[in-house]
């Protein structure tokens, strides 16, 4: 009787069970050998018995070579993976892995990123497990631990107050970017958008019905741009993160969102007409309409922090 394959997982052959006192050995079933072996080997591929010299598939020219290896491979594939049950976001904006000292970029086609529900961060496959990124010692994003409320509150309120004051002035300035006289009716706004379409730049291959025409600016206090403002069109199907990347290239603004974990270095998109900071994963067509103005700001923090405060 043969022992289970788990006893010798690295070979296709196993020693026969010698516990039976009546076992007096078996003859090798390899042609021309027929040697009596008291410690015979059982081939798990062709199910025959062989002596020490002919125990491997190669030496006895196994008629079903590779069958054991294939069964082992299928058994390994059937085992659950280490990350089974972990939720992957439908869309993760390209960013560095949240694990300390890890330089892997997640949110790509090769490294989609795994979201941890406990600490509310995105990690690469290597650091997806809680013990790999020290999850139990991390403060979840969005939480407000008692020892940090004062410092975080003051910093976020200061950024929010600055943003509100700046936004109010920019709303008025944004109307001056439209053709004179100031458009107040639907027909006047249509004329302004038509004028914008003549000067806006973008991918010429993009279908006209998919385009959203926008005024794009960069705030002088938070970033240095080669071109402080411009007129561009983008796809309605894009997310705000992709629009930000394209706008930064168009104005030649330094964009380190995908390489820096420091929020003070990151760019955000402020919607002047809506008076709010847009999320990276919002759809352009759902948040913006042709003729709107968006501004690239740096270091103002994520939208959720501003809303909560």
Can you describe this structure?
This protein is of the alpha+beta class and 309 residues long. The protein is 25% helix and 17% strand. The protein folds into three domains: 13-78, Zf-an1 domain, CATH 4.10.1110.10; 83-143; 146-308, Ubiquitin-like (UB roll), CATH 3.10.20.90. It is built from six helices and 14 strands. Residues 22-70, 91-143 form the AN1-type domain. GO terms for molecular function: zinc ion binding. This is AN1-type domain-containing protein. It comes from Neoarthrinium moseri.
Shape: elongated
**Strands side by side in the biggest sheet:** 11-10-14-12-13
Please give the radius of gyration in angstroms: 33 Å
Total DSSP helices: 6
| Beta-strand percentage range | 15-25%
CATH fold assignment of the largest domain:
Ubiquitin-like (UB roll)
Distance N to C terminus: 73 Å
What is the string of helix and strand elements?
EEEEEHEEEEHHEEHEEHEH
**What is the CATH C-level name of the largest domain?**
Alpha Beta
Uncertain ranges: 1-8, 146-150, 172-182, 304-309
- Tell me the number of strands: 14
Topology:
Layout: E1 13-15, E2 26-27, E3 36-37, E4 41-43, E5 49-50, H1 67-78, E6 95-96, E7 105-106, E8 114-116, E9 121-123, H2 149-176, H3 186-199, E10 211-218, E11 229-235, H4 240-251, E12 267-271, E13 276-278, H5 284-287, E14 293-298, H6 303-308
Parallel strand pairs: 10-14
Antiparallel strand pairs: 1-4, 2-3, 4-5, 6-7, 8-9, 10-11, 12-13, 12-14
Organism: Neoarthrinium moseri
Pfam family, one: zf-AN1
InterPro entries: AN1-like_Znf, UBL_ZFAND1-like, Znf_AN1
């Amino acid at each position: 009787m043969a022992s289970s394959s788990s006893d010798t997982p690295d070979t296709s052959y196993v020693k026969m069970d010698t516990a039976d006192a009546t076992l007096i050995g078996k003859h090798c079933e390899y042609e021309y050998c027929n040697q009596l072996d008291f410690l015979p080997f059982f081939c798990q591929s062709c199910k025959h018995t062989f002596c020490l010299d002919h125990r491997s598939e190669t030496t006895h020219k196994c008629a079903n070579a590779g069958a054991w290896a294939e069964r082992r491979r299928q058994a390994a594939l059937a085992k659950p993976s280490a990350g089974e049950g972990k939720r992957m976001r439908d869309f993760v904006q390209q960013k560095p892995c949240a694990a300390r000292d890890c330089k892997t970029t997640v949110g790509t086609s090769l490294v989609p990123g795994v979201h941890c529900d406990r600490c509310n961060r995105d990690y690469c496959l290597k650091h997806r497990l809680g013990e790999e990124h020290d999850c139990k010692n991390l403060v979840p994003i969005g939480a407000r631990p008692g020892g940090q409320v004062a410092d975080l509150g003051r910093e976020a309120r200061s950024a929010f107050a600055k943003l509100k004051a700046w936004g109010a002035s920019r709303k008025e300035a944004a109307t001056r970017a439209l053709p004179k006289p100031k458009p107040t009716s639907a027909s006047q706004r249509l004329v302004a958008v038509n004028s914008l379409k003549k000067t806006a730049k973008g991918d010429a291959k993009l279908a006209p019905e998919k385009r959203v025409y926008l005024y794009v600016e960069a705030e002088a206090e938070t970033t240095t741009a080669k071109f402080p403002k411009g007129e561009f069109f983008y796809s309605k199907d894009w997310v705000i993160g992709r629009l930000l990347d394209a706008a930064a290239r168009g104005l030649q603004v330094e964009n380190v969102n995908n390489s820096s974990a420091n929020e003070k270095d990151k760019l955000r998109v402020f919607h002047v007409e809506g008076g709010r900071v847009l999320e990276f994963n919002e759809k352009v067509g759902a948040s913006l309409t042709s003729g709107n103005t968006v501004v690239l700001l740096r270091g103002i923090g994520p939208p959720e922090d501003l809303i909560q405060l």
